[in-house]
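Limitations
The structure tokens in this dataset are predictions for the assembled complex, not deposited experimental models. Users should treat interface geometry with appropriate caution, especially where small molecules or nucleic acid strands are included. An illustrative entry is reproduced here so readers can see what is and is not provided.
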Amino acid sequence: MAYHTSTEERPIDIVNIPALEPIVKAKMNKGAFGYLAGGAESEITLRENVTSFEHKKILPRVLRNVEKPDMSTELFGIHIDAPIIAAPIAAHGLVHEQAEKDTVQGVGAAGSIFSLSTYGNATVDEVAQASPDTAKFFQLYMSKDDDFNHWILDMAVNDGYKAIILTADSTLGGYRESDIMNNFAFPLPMKNLAAWAAKTAGPDSGEGEGIAAIYAKAKQKLSLADIKAIKDYTHLPVIVKGVQSPLDIEDLLNAGADGIWVSNHGGRQIDGAPGSFDTLAEIAAVVAKRVPVIFDSGVRRGQHIFKALASGADIVAIGRPMLWGLSLGGVQGVTDVYNHFKKELTIDMQLAGTQTIADVKNTVLADAK
Amino acid sequence: MAYHTSTEERPIDIVNIPALEPIVKAKMNKGAFGYLAGGAESEITLRENVTSFEHKKILPRVLRNVEKPDMSTELFGIHIDAPIIAAPIAAHGLVHEQAEKDTVQGVGAAGSIFSLSTYGNATVDEVAQASPDTAKFFQLYMSKDDDFNHWILDMAVNDGYKAIILTADSTLGGYRESDIMNNFAFPLPMKNLAAWAAKTAGPDSGEGEGIAAIYAKAKQKLSLADIKAIKDYTHLPVIVKGVQSPLDIEDLLNAGADGIWVSNHGGRQIDGAPGSFDTLAEIAAVVAKRVPVIFDSGVRRGQHIFKALASGADIVAIGRPMLWGLSLGGVQGVTDVYNHFKKELTIDMQLAGTQTIADVKNTVLADAK
Amino acid sequence: MAYHTSTEERPIDIVNIPALEPIVKAKMNKGAFGYLAGGAESEITLRENVTSFEHKKILPRVLRNVEKPDMSTELFGIHIDAPIIAAPIAAHGLVHEQAEKDTVQGVGAAGSIFSLSTYGNATVDEVAQASPDTAKFFQLYMSKDDDFNHWILDMAVNDGYKAIILTADSTLGGYRESDIMNNFAFPLPMKNLAAWAAKTAGPDSGEGEGIAAIYAKAKQKLSLADIKAIKDYTHLPVIVKGVQSPLDIEDLLNAGADGIWVSNHGGRQIDGAPGSFDTLAEIAAVVAKRVPVIFDSGVRRGQHIFKALASGADIVAIGRPMLWGLSLGGVQGVTDVYNHFKKELTIDMQLAGTQTIADVKNTVLADAK
Amino acid sequence: MAYHTSTEERPIDIVNIPALEPIVKAKMNKGAFGYLAGGAESEITLRENVTSFEHKKILPRVLRNVEKPDMSTELFGIHIDAPIIAAPIAAHGLVHEQAEKDTVQGVGAAGSIFSLSTYGNATVDEVAQASPDTAKFFQLYMSKDDDFNHWILDMAVNDGYKAIILTADSTLGGYRESDIMNNFAFPLPMKNLAAWAAKTAGPDSGEGEGIAAIYAKAKQKLSLADIKAIKDYTHLPVIVKGVQSPLDIEDLLNAGADGIWVSNHGGRQIDGAPGSFDTLAEIAAVVAKRVPVIFDSGVRRGQHIFKALASGADIVAIGRPMLWGLSLGGVQGVTDVYNHFKKELTIDMQLAGTQTIADVKNTVLADAK
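Predicted assembly:
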């Protein structure tokens, strides 16, 4: 049976980001929505991703000569309009027929960076062709088969992707009960896997399988040496994604990591971990500005971005909200979501007395009482 | 379509202050009520304004020779019957046809000080004429146009207003979702703006616009130098309103501030800030009695006033409750609200073993466990 | 209209103490129940009286040679079967026709001490006659009229009451909204007041008045000197009731207090005070065993008694639960309530590895995490 | 009337462990379910047994060369497939006709250790015969009659049980209100008691009595000397079960305890104690690896096992979940429950970067914020 999904291409009304989720839920396939929304086990970490932002409070400064705050910043020399980039997410085709081909355009129109997952519903090449001018990162789920790894990294390098995101937190699938209860399997092929399968006797496309089965076929035994191997092969910066412990930082930097991506995978991998924001400040303190810190998981408000930056993040990534925009409005919906985050962030910056992103980073937050 | 609102002039029954809000809600225009009641974004700060008072507890003292506690105090040499004054609020006309002309009389009858907003529905002159004997402060939202600033400050000085409140926290409107969802615009002209518009090519009256649009037309780039400029121009004490960070205090005092008004604008500006009470003690400690500390946001009980004074406030201001009284009873309703606060405060002072406001200020609160 | 109330005299079934309250509520006059159950203002302190016990946890000890724990203890040389005595409460006639005459018998049958309020519905003499062998304390609400004070203290001394409880926390009535909303007034005379009124031109009996009016007619300006005056006049131990601040202790002991009664009056006086249990340990530490510490407010479980003793109380008093027993079963109901507390306490003592009340007092509680 | 219970023997579907409880509840006798599910008094400790695991958080490590984690460990030289053993529970016959005879087989099939209660519905011998190859511990509730103690310990020794669990926390029954409200009495004989009663004039079989009555007939006055007496008599390791206070540890080890079993008896004995997990780390720190630490109470997730091991436990025991499996699927249901815990634990170990149980134990947890 063909999988039917959104074909919308239109601007969307946004009062706030969280309000988009029930609208998306009402129109989406139940299993696919469960996959998108769900987290691991009891979903405590999933919920704490949002609530943990309340553990720190903004103390606005006054009479600080602020007007029209400047949200622009850069990452690996790439100028971006605001410190908000796309988190890599598998299978955008679940929410929109155009899948990553739309998302990348929407992200580009917002002046930001797109991150493509190995498990996308468009290939590395297709995404590059859909939006040549958008800066792009490629997220690698390492295969047990180095031929696959080399093939897909070659594509990314050749297509001008600017960095490799090494997924470190997903050597198995988290225990996601929505998927089990819905008996969810991907209704569409993961196009990179399909292209490789067409070319070789490699793993199949993922169509008809759940995420746990797909992760289990990838490489479990990831090691610090993988960082250098990817760097040497691609000559691109390697960002390690899925960092939650400050104890990992020295090892990762010694192993050559060019960026630290603090994330608990949107609460989808190990339940019982802290809300992602609760881990950020301590990790950033150990990184100590040696490499950029990117942060995701639970960002739903401009103030969340503000608090993450003030806690040591250089860049914040958004995941589910971007797909809500994709579902409701295609290219324009994605851009609208970015613009809404920017609207809230610019208000927060103005009201907090911060003219630049550097000012935000220098802000001291208060502990909640 | 004409805007219909209360014309009540009568005493009101008050069991407690929070119980007034649903009564007001039931009789008010939905958009106007949403404007009055709402806060920014998720309204977390709005709610914490009230709940934060529970973070500190009163430990009553016994056998302390207390009888008929004396609530009187003073501010800038003005005697007041109790340490409770009016917070400045825009557009009292939303809740009562007589608008600020009634409120000022009700406040005066309660032996307190009235604060008029630039964005009132009565002019500086009209308020002065409505209650010549009531002590009054004028709250300035600075315009980009210094001619307007001078014109309105001249009026305040000439009409005998006793202090200027410089609004420091509102260089843009907070992101208030009630107003967006209700598509709320002010149904009545802001009379000072209207008078200026009639006289010049200045900004229009605000009628038909939302608060964000109005704030955006005012001056964004407020600076410490504005304090001295207003002082020099008016020779009146200048209170900086909207202070939330102890880091601002030295700068503000060095810049000439004659009073520090701790407030988060009733949770209406930046969500994700602490409950206002949570910021008070640390700010007051830095002020260290060099100038008066005024406190608002979330005050709904006599015990809240007690706790604020014991945390370093010299004076507490009330906002929404005063307008609930105005809505339900006009002049008398306003006075009744003040009297109810005084009734609760006098009981608390007696039971806590405190004879005077100085005793209250010297009380040591306990941290909640 | 005559006030109808319980005339029950029977044993009652008790699964747990809190379960009695809704049964009593269903059969009682609404205003009278509201008076009995209600607290001040928002009733936050009232609720925290019960929940504050969860701030400390029992860590049971094992293999400690415990069997049939001994709950007996003493206060001012009076042997009691368990460290549980009657808190003084006004107007037992609200819940039972026999009023304090039944309660004193039920308390005596439980091997405990009864405390009679000045504002009882039976006189000092009547209570003494109803149960001559029960140990009794008399709780004094001081009058502005020392003749009244001397007259009623003479009765207590002559009737063999063993101690005077000086009410220190009630120089005015707390702001109790149930009473206001129910327009509650006492339907029956306070018999001591009535006897004095019959004899003199003293204050009337309280019938038809609310508690705030009655308190307001008593003496507000209580002082430390009142302790010694009562001691000198009665030659009885004087316990100061209503202590919540450790800062008061040295003054009270220097002024001659023979006992410290930690209480927030069941949450009925000043809302915004801590749960009573939260104040106990610090106060007891300052008392440092110089005089007995009695504790009340919120005791509903045997484990509450255990925790209070382990936090420095020598004796725990129960209030509302005793009246629930009175309402449901008269004399026997009161005894049954005491026996239920003893049943739970003896289980707790056995399971916690504590043979005696001294062992319980030496137990170290853990902070809740 | 005959007691009807499950006779199921089949595999069961498990999405998660907590989801089994309502299914069991729907099919079970109300009183028996209440006995199984209920805790003491207000059941605060019962609830905190599960929620206390949220007080600590897992910070997963990345790129640590982990693949196919090894969950195997050992206890007293007994190899087990995972650090999960059976907690001793009375009266498995309440949930399944085959009672402990099924449970022991299911546990054995899972490669774990079974613990038989004195109050089982199968004798020491019957359990041994039902599954000779399964490693077994025997839980002793000491009788006042040493002849009984010797007789039952002889059986355990002769049947090859590997350790004696001395129940230290149950010298009386906790105050369990479900049992009181349901008027619950055991519908079936406790077979060890019945065998002894048949042989002697000893205590009867427990049939028709509640747990409190049964506990009350056992020995109350347990002492440290009992440890050595059992060791000398059996020459088996003695584990003291029901430890909650770090203050007990030195005494227990000095008295010869070969294992410390941290437990609050599933919240069934003393309410007002901490969640069991809240007591673990401090106790384990005092034990300091001198003897094994076993932990139970509230374990419902693989992550709970992970957190317990990382807090100092060597082995985790499961209670109610095992009986839910027994109820729903007999032998296979028990094994399925173990396998589900192992499935979650292995995912957690892989995702947390831990290859072995030793790695898990060396993991540093974060305090929840």
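Some entries come with short summary sentences. For this one: Residues 19 and 324 of chain D are 10 Å apart (CA to CA).
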